[in-house]
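Supplementary material to the annual report.
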Amino acid sequence: MVRYIIRRLLATVLLLFVVSVVTFAIFYLVPRLAGATPEDLASRYVGRTASGQQVTDLAKKLGFTDPLWVQYGRFAKGIILGSEYNTGPTTVRCPAPCFGYSFITQNPVWPDLVDRMTVTLSLALGAAVIWLVSGVATGVISALRRGTVFDRASMGVALAGVSLPIFFTGLLSLSIFSYRLGWFPGGGSYVPITQNPLQWAHALVLPWITLAFLYSAAYARLTRAGMLETMNEDFIRTARAKGLPERVVVLKHGLRSALTPILTIFGLDLGLLLGGAVLTESTYSLPGIGKYAVDGIVNNDLPKVLGVTLLGAFFVIIANLIVDLLYAVVDPRVRLA
Amino acid sequence: MRRPAVAVVSIGAALALAISACGGGNTSSNNGGGAATAAFNAAVGKIFDPSDKKGGTLRFANSGDWDSLDPADTYYGYSWDFIRYYGRSLVMFAPKPGSAGNELVPDLATSLGVPSDGAKTWTYHIRPGIKFEDGTPVTSKDVKYAVERSLDKQTFTQGPTYLNDFLDLQGYTSPYNDPTPDKLGLKAVDTPDDLTIVFHLIKPFSGFDYFAMLPATIPVPRAKDSGTNYKQHVVSTGPYMFQTNNPGKNFTLVRNPNWDPATDPNRKALPDKIEVQLNVNADDIDNRMLANPPDLDVAVEQTGLQAAGQAKVLADPTLKKNADVASLARLWFAVINSDVKPLDNIHCRKAVLLAADHEGYQRAYGGPIAGGDIATSLMPPQIPGARKIDLYNFDANKNGDDAAAKSELQQCGQPNGFATSISYRAERPKEKATAESLQQSLAKVGIQLTIKPYPLADYGKLYAGKPDFAKNNQLGIIIYGWGADWPDGFGFLQQIVDSRVIRPQGGNTNLGIKIPAVDQLLDQALQTTDKTAREKLWGDIDQQVMENAMALPGIWAKVLLYRPSSMTNVYVNEGLGGYYDFVSLGVKQ
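Predicted assembly:
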């Protein structure tokens, strides 16, 4: 087990290295292949009246004139060993893991990521609890009451949940519950849990429900399908023949077996969300990782984009590792080696 | 990848707004304000709900992030409007509605600049008694230091470069490399005493007061300068100072106890507090302003309501009473590229101008209210010196004059028309619609256009703004837009008509207008200190460009602003480019 975890962690480092190289290449190599010069890249970060000399000097300062491998090496070194940046009158130390400085705001990326991580964690974990509980419960009940009104109605709602995009349900919920009924605060009302836990929860109720509505729909359908298949298995018949109570048959034997694919997709979903719930954060103006990524992309702020990509990849990989470990807990047939 | 997502988001937003039909409109109840009744355009050319009532919190929201709160590093128009809350430059635009707002008035200085040496030297005297937020008196040396640091474009990359271009720098680059002990080694700026500052230019510039209006002249105390980190807490000289600042999220301003209204005739400073939220969903900003009661007072970017909000306001007479159509000092236009044959022939260029469907251009931008007025020349009417120029009778022939166009084609030697390409910025659907409209209207006289979209981010650097690329790809018509940094002929025209600013390596704002007579007129205007004579020259330049048919004017832009009932003392200031004058706004009590 321990060896398995160590092996996976080592593979994680390798995978993050590959992700960083690919991401770096997309933002730094591809423009060059398309004919962009270092000055073309630098000209994105100056005012519209900037002179050619200013652009040339900035290209040099930002390191765009160096060979790509040197630029990547500098970036990687910053993550491992930290780096130093000139603020004008002084030079400041950016400790490891230094994901570089934003080309636009000239702030270090890592503290921004950490700061925004709390928002994204608040959103993703809260929503995950809701969608997992409601989605799985709905799926189980639907499977057990296949063909009933409940089954049809819940699957209809689930279909709507999957189909309606967050920017629609989000804006609609804000319009009705915030600006018309006044039950919840409007967009951009997030306060840290450390500042005021009640306000924190109050501001996140709508984003949680909106996000959970989308995901729980998929989980309900997935659980229902899994349960229908499992409940027809021989071992369920055996369990019933042994005289086990139906509750035990369903929860201990049926659901446990049907949970494996749910766990797989949950790991992926949660990992991706922790890397930034872009649409939800944008719709509700939550200052999380996803919004940060959008800002970075819109403004061609490459260090921001690189930082978010690596962080997102990290979360996906770690979430998958945890899921793999949980397989063994959920399904006794799985043995890690 | 991003374009379809944006389109879907917009449709979703529109549907959400339509279904929710939130809150009814508001007419002003005038608590704490005057006795104003809401009306469409009530804040254009006049003050809506005049008030001197102090108190309350004014709530702003920005759909993006600020470029920078540092006066040395900011170039957004709304930022120049907002920065006057916490910073005082030497001069500023008069806080008045309508064209009166175009006038510069002294702010930190006692009067406008006094030119000498043929407008190569400009002297300002600073009002006594002005202090930083910590109570330290402001001196001319603080202004000089602020100017010096704004010159450092390796540290402050985003700000304008006018002072770099016009001051007699003699190699000076930055106070951070300055070997002098007090870091005031810039010879282009003298401070003979604590209240006098003198600027020395490398060439005459009659409009230097506009440079003195730039945030770069807002004083900065050297002891508090932390370079790129100074934006975290800019030391205030205005009526408000920073209480909190969470970059990328929000910031709050509260009253500056060391601001003395006796030294400041320009700011009413009505609210007690100013809150700004950053990175707020743009449709949500509209929703919050339209809510009853409003949940937000000002959309700080002043780019107008989003499509969904716009449709809702225009369709509801009650909401429309709280809307204003502001004219911007901005032109949507197309450059006729004379590098591409046969557009090197003036008659072929004239044929393009004559055949164009001007109403089609206007429709592409949203019509007369949300888009703007049909432009008959380059300079928007509110810019001093602009005069009515309609050489090709656009006003009379709003859908084009095919007969006249064919006659010009005949003279051009292309009686059956010709083929060329038209470029636009791929991420801008209005420019796409413009290209399609021109394609249809020009086809009527035989001019066949191939439409070529290019990425917005690199449009000026790699594609349309790179002369070789434009020529090699036969970009005969280049769709573009331009807004003045300030409503003045120099600020509007120089970057788009001066052939000497065209760089072969790209990154140009002049996309191909090359007229020697225009360059000469620009030089002449820079040396003309008489305001009336100078303003006439701007009109002459506009006339020259149109006579040479180097550009197809499209739309003089307008924007639909919303004025929530929670605000008092609201008006559009033309000097600020068609924005609400932030420093005059009050909160209804």
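Chain B touches chain A through 66 residues (CB under 8 Å).
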